[in-house]
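Memo to structure team: turn this sequence into structure tokens by end of day. - J.P.
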Amino acid sequence: MSTHHHRTHFFRSSKFSFKHLTSTEGLATLTINRMISVLGWSLIGLFYPIFIYEYFHQSLVIVLLYFAITFAVRIPLFWVGAKIFSRIGLVASMIIGEIGATFALFAFYALETGIFSIPPSAFLLFAIIGFAIDSMFYWSPFHVDFIKMSTKGKLGRQISVRYAIQSVISVLAPLISGWIILHHGYEFNFLFGVLITITSIIPLLFLKNTFVQYEFGFWETFQKMFESKFRSMSISMMAYGAESVVGTVIWPLFLFIIFQGDYLNIGSFAAVIIVMSLLLELFIGKETDKFSAVKMLKIGTGVYALGWIGKAIVDTVVGVFAASTFHSIGSILLRTPMDTLMYEQAADCGHYIDEYTTLREIALTIGRAGMMFFLIALTYWFSISSAFLVAAVISIFVLRIARQSFSPVEG
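Reply from structure team:
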């Protein structure tokens, strides 16, 4: 059973420490941290797979292997991170995670500029380590704090507001990063990402450093994933991770090929799609609170799967635009209810809230790594767009499992 201890605040002696933030103020502060991080990553995210693709001389197999390794090495580290954040607190853990993300982006900056006389492969290793630190220390504590600070009955709206703000940030970021890369190269893009990401630590200094106790052992953690309490959630999150990674890794590469390496057009295209889906984000969150999130999830999964199929069969800019717009609608219909259900179930776990969120992150990462390994074989025989058909099938599978997984978990 996870217990919460009243220990000395990690920054209690600092002039930045606010002891009496309300839940609403705390949630706003946590959201500011997330938005700054999103801004830093949005300058990089769309072009990150493209950078790796170009670095490895447009070898898709090596790129997929790189991402497969990047995800796979994180899987056992989530348990280590959970044990450490049990001792140092959630806020302190998130700060370490942000430092890890900054370190990873700096590694890419150093790789691109050659400012250090060490083998380039070392920088890729440093980046993998940095992203692993970010994953193992940031995400589970973030989810726990977000759940504790959110308002019951308004989760869908609060999540959709967060995503809407992220979308606003993400509108300009691809345009800016595309222009920067076109005129100044990747190094300036990575440098801006480093500077912005490190500032995301500042809002965390205002949050109370709460403590939880992660109780599962290493092997027990993986056994628990497939016990009746967590099995359906774990399987659905594996499928969700496998499907979503196609959008974050394969889709940017597909755009790079369609737009023949024109960075500015790639960024502009991504920005337009985000604008068209922005207002819908808030509407979906509001409706999620009014109606059954499972029903919204069912509708979203169908639209989302059709969007993947559309992406698989188009090969022109106009076709890609139409398919992307349709797919973005499905993404919103799927993502907001999915996260709402996840947070509600995590809250219902009571004392096992940190265990739940850690198992969720492990399952997502297993799905992502597994999909990358699978696509290595698939793209050897078929084109890159075949990955979208696989994602369509998996998204339907997510719905079937989600019906079982989002039921109360006894704590």
